[in-house]
């Protein structure tokens, strides 16, 4: 199966000459070389994820803003034979304190479709834009979670996905970079995981990921937040596949 893309926001830099120049610059990165392109990827034999339909909800990292619009979502679709719905808009936040948030966009998706899982990015934009983090709360079918905060938005998204599509919800973090606010968001997400029984692909605290060599890191990452195609394909995608294979029950 191929990848079904619902929304693809333009590369950071937007449409027009600046966006075009940025894309040309990205094309020349070693991490975006032709050998890493999606059309060079071969399907895995008998993947446990084959035939599953997965929604990826996020911002520039889910989109692939520095990897020419290709992210781990696309590689999983190509490698594992599952159908991927990629709802990703660069620069957006989890919380509704900013326009076009994850919450707002999730509400616009067709509730009659079905998913085997929803995978949500813990957005670095909330940290960089200093959105109020709030705090974890116990699960409730009726609580009025404050979606203008990061934790409130996370809990609202979990509840909405479960009530709407009755499927597992998995959040994922970015790899480590220096940010006290994002560290707090990761810590709170892990607290929410315990009480809400969700999955978390924790790249932030993954010691194997942190032990990457400087040489590989320069190939894998365009900047401390955004991977290249090589970073997604060789570094991130295997972690996602291993976790989802196990979490979704094979």
Structural write-up:
This protein is of the alpha/beta class. It has one domain (3-247): SGNH hydrolase (Rossmann fold). Helices cover 40% and strands 12% of the residues. It has a six-stranded parallel beta sheet with strand order 1-3-2-4-5-6, sandwiched between helices.
Q: Which features characterize this protein?
A:
Rossmann fold, alpha/beta, 6-stranded parallel β-sheet, globular, 250 residues, 10 helices, 40% helix, single chain
Question: What does this entry show, briefly?
Answer:
The chain is an alpha/beta fold and 250 residues long. It is built from ten helices and six strands; from the N terminus they run βαβααβαβααβαβααα.
Q: Tell me roughly what share of residues is in helical segments.
A: 25-40%
In one word, what is the shape?
A: globular
Unreliable parts: 5-15
The sequence of SSEs as H and E is EHEHHEHEHHEHEHHH
Number of strands: 6
Q: Largest sheet, order of strands side by side?
A: 1-3-2-4-5-6
Second-tier CATH architecture: 3-Layer(aba) Sandwich
**Oligomer status:** single chain
Question: What is the CATH topology assignment?
Answer: Rossmann fold
Biggest β-sheet strands, sense, barrel: 6 strands, parallel
Give the mean pLDDT.
Answer: 93
Task: Domain count, please report it.
Answer: 1
CATH superfamily: SGNH hydrolase
């Amino acid at each position: 199966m191929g990848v079904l893309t619902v929304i693809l926001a333009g590369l950071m830099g937007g449409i027009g000459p600046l966006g075009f120049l940025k894309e040309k610059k990205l094309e020349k990165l070693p991490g975006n070389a032709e050998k890493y392109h999606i059309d060079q990827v071969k399907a895995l034999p008998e993947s446990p994820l084959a035939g599953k339909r997965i929604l990826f909800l996020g911002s520039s990292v889910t989109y692939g803003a520095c990897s020419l619009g290709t992210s781990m979502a696309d590689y999983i679709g190509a490698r594992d034979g599952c159908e991927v719905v990629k709802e990703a808009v660069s620069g957006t936040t989890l919380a509704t304190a900013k326009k076009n948030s994850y919450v707002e966009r999730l509400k616009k998706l067709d509730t009659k479709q079905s998913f085997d899982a929803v995978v949500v990015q813990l957005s670095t934009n909330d940290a960089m834009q200093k959105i109020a983090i709030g705090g974890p709360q116990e699960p409730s079918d009726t609580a009025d979670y404050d979606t203008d905060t990061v934790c409130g938005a996370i809990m609202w998204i979990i509840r909405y996905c479960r009530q709407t599509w009755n499927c597992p919800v998995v959040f994922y973090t970015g790899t480590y970079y220096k940010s006290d606010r994002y560290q707090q968001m990761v810590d709170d997400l892990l607290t929410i995981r315990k009480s809400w029984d969700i999955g978390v692909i924790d790249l932030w605290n993954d010691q194997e990921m942190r032990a990457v060599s400087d040489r590989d890191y320069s190939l894998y990452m365009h900047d401390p937040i955004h991977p290249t195609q090589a970073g997604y394909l060789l570094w991130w995608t295997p972690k996602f596949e291993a976790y989802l294979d196990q979490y979704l029950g094979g």
